[in-house]
Design brief:
Elements (H helix, E strand, L loop, with lengths): L1 H15 L7 H19 L1 H26 L12 H28 L9
Helix pairs in contact: 1-3, 2-3, 2-4, 3-4
Length: about 120
């Protein structure tokens, strides 16, 4: 889902010439939704970890797909080196874990989790 989002927004951004980074907030909403959905079906821990996996795929596969498409970003960013890429992957994954835990917590607080770790 996250990779599809990256591809669609990259294409829209490129064709309509609006800044791709304006859609950053949608990634956060996706992480929260994934955390809620995971907690709904398997419990809080599962929801949080599933969000982390979404962030990891967003910062690796999604980033790659986006770069291949070439979204419109202002100002133009220099090509990242391996250190920047590694730090970005870690940071995005941790941010996704945090937002997914919010979604999982909302699911837990509303009494909708369905696992022993509720």
């Amino acid at each position: 889902m996250v990779t599809g989002f990256d591809a669609v927004t990259s294409l829209l951004s490129r064709s309509l010439q609006f800044d791709y980074t304006n859609f950053l907030w949608v990634s956060f909403v996706i992480y929260v939704a994934v955390g809620f959905w995971g907690a709904l079906h398997q419990g809080f821990v599962y929801g949080t970890l599933l969000g982390g996996i979404a962030g990891l795929s967003d910062s690796t596969i999604g980033w790659f797909v986006s770069q291949v498409i070439g979204p419109f970003i202002q100002p133009k960013l220099p090509s990242p080196n391996l250190i920047v890429i590694g730090l970005t992957i870690v940071f995005v994954t941790l941010v996704a874990l945090a937002f997914a835990s919010i979604g999982a917590l909302v699911c837990k607080l509303t009494g909708r989790t369905r696992s022993a770790d509720t």
